[in-house]
Amino acid sequence: MAAAALILVGTVMLANRHAVAAHFADGTRGTFVVEDVFCQQRCTWSGFFYRDPQARGTWFTMAAGPGQTIRGRSHQVPAIDVGDPNQVYPLGGGSGWAEARTVAIATTAVACSLIAAVLLRRWRSRRYPRAAPTDSPPSTSTPA
Question: CA-CA distances (angstroms) from residue 32 to 79, 100, 105, 121?
Fold first, then answer.
């Protein structure tokens, strides 16, 4: 059971590897220039990412990070490219990192609870062993 929880944590982190890499600033820093803003439950920016001011920009989308204000077109945001072909991330990883962290913490808590339950059960079975069953039925005769 604990192995399944660890596999789940690994899968979640792998699925969110780009956001995790962005959180740890493991990529190319640059500037994201907003061209379009799309908001429903979350806001997503589309625009150009510039690795340096003289380079030609590359078209990407970027999810707004927690607490970031979207000022609209031409707004410049410090960003990081971690190899995702469609998306760059705000410095700090954006909201994708927070989701991965929440799932990883919850899954780790469940795994620790399961391990503790198994260890407690083993400890109790050694400390309080069950009585061995007897093969002879109890005596029902009365002395004469």
Answer: 6, 23, 31, 55
